[in-house]
Amino acid sequence: MKGAKRKKKSVLRSKMHTPHCEDFKQWCRSRLPILEWAARYNLKENLLPDTVSGIMLAVQQVTQGLAFAVLSSVHPVFGLYGSLFPAIIYAIFGMGRHVATGTFALTSLISANAVERLVPLSSQNLTTQSNTSVLGLSDFEMQRIGVAAAVSFLGGVIQVAMFVLQLGSATFLLTEPVISAMTTGAATHVVTSQVKYLLGMKVPYISGPLGFFYIYAHVFENIKSVRLEALLLSLLCIVVLVLVKELNEQFKRKIKIVLPVDLVLIIAASLTCYCTNMENAYGLEVVGHIPKGIPPPKAPPMHVLSAVITEAFGVALVGYVASLALAQGSAKKFKYSVDDNQELLAHGLSNVIPSFFFCIPSAAAMGRTAGLYSTGAKTQVACLISCIFVLIVIYVIGPFLYWLPMCVLASIIVVGLKGMLIQFRDLKKYWNVDKIDWGIWVSTYIFTICFAANVGLLFGVVCTIAIVIGRFPREKTLSIKNMKEMEFKVKTEMDDETLQQVKIISINNPLVFLNAKKFHSDLMNIIQKENASNQPLDEISKCEQNTLLNSLSNGNCNEETTQPCPNEKCSLILDCSGLTFSDYSGVSMLVEVYMDCKSKSVDVSFVHCTASLIKAIRYCGNLDSEKPIFFESVSAAISNICSNKNLSKFCDHSEI
């Protein structure tokens, strides 16, 4: 009896523990994406492109690390640490396969506010003579990196707290015009901060409201103090960088390895400065001493956390928004999915853990991510390989960068921001698609310029929500129109070999950023269920959902739907008679629906579209121009389908 009881207990225990073990494994795989992709990593196909991309990325990481550390008002060596540790952490926890995390211009600019406020340059004379045992740097430099590390630590804690609260789903509030305007405005601030190095003149640190204008006022008042040597060298570097990068972009398909012009320029400028003694002969400012090695970890100063709350929130929000936009763009380009909440955790830990290693705030950068695209990177292995070369620079090459002129470093920063600055071209696009989005872009940019990136971001979100609430009626967004009648007519009149399905879906509500993703998800689900089985229409009609009421669920638009059955030919008619207005996100989603359906061999027709909507759709995407897709009525669209498929019998019975 006792043996039987023991067996029963052991069976019960195994039943209880088995699902828990499986749940734990699944949780680990979801929270540690590296376990998923590393197990499937193909050495033969991926190692070579990842290695080449990693080497090219290391060049960018080193140059931007040095530059953004100076931008953050700390010693350049701390930028090298910021290019190493965050990249490793993100490779473990992040889901973006082509996202290059490290030092970032916008977060560096925000943390500089805290550094300059709490450890101003005027206090340097009090601490210059006292050197710490950490890398031989002065107490002044260590106090400054302490403040920057505190901003990184607290910003990361805020991001992890947002992950715990599952606030990643709230990112649908961040529309493309708002993000574009904020990043463009912040890039303008970064360029302004580099003017003093480009011109070789002394400019005091100026921040706060309208600080952007005060800086240029000071520059023009002291225009006679510009060093001609620094200005000419800056112009030469900018011209060389732009020309070579444009040539690399044009011939990237013909040449396997692009020219690392940043690295070549750094080596050439350092050698020239050393041989000609430019530092003393012409008064050019150089990077200076860069110590070897990595110091032992140390906790950020906790007593300053209360003083850097504002900057920490700015780093958390701006860094996450910019990084998530790059991750989602990468996922959309290479057909995989990204979890918004997991990205919060990844970037939060990429700020918290490196803060113990004297790192400035980190995020993903557009230039580095675009570099991974162009060099053919496959996975995060490219970022891990770049970390190896960054380590070589820290332990071996770093001291040789002493003679690198600051004007050259500033030129690299300015050219690296080209991707953000050319977003001014988006204004034409927003004007043609939705003039309200154009107004939001301009106003968000102005607020960012006049105040700060986090203020501009907040203004853009509030402004967008307020405008939409004032225009948005509460009705259903999707409904299936005459589906039962249409399915019956198709199936009775057509032969079994060529089954023609026509789905007519009416959009009865505005299509904006609030419900665009959910609209795409609902529509793809309807098509997927229709193609998966020939179930009765009464069951299909149950798929209708109130998109507006569920818009906060943030439907995942990256899930791949099943392909239609090979023996079926499908056509989709979108009735836009109830589409009272749409913003840029809504129009973009209509174009995305068209392209997704086209890839699944589903013909899409738009009916009852206004002239402005037709113009916006045509401007927003490259649609098929060989055959008409816009029609005045449903019957006209059906007649077109009949004529294309030679379905004369079907046409006789499908008048609406």
UniProtKB/TrEMBL annotation:
GO MF term (any one): sulfate transmembrane transporter activity
Q: Which organism's genome codes for this protein?
A: Catagonus wagneri
Membrane-topology descriptor: Multi-pass membrane protein
Q: What is this protein called?
A: Anion exchange transporter
Q: Which UniProt keywords apply?
A: Anion exchange, Cell membrane, Endosome, Ion transport, Membrane, Transmembrane, Transmembrane helix, Transport
UniProt-listed InterPro entries: SLC26A/SulP_dom (IPR011547), SLC26A/SulP_fam (IPR001902), STAS_dom (IPR002645), STAS_dom_sf (IPR036513)
Q: Where is the protein localized?
A: Apical cell membrane; Basolateral cell membrane; Lateral cell membrane; Recycling endosome membrane
- Report which reactions are catalysed by this protein: nitrate(in) = nitrate(out); thiocyanate(in) = thiocyanate(out); hydrogencarbonate(in) + chloride(out) = hydrogencarbonate(out) + chloride(in); D-gluconate(in) = D-gluconate(out)
Give residue ranges for domain STAS: 492-641
Keyword tRNA processing present in the record's keywords: the answer is no
What's the chief localization of this chain? Answer: membrane
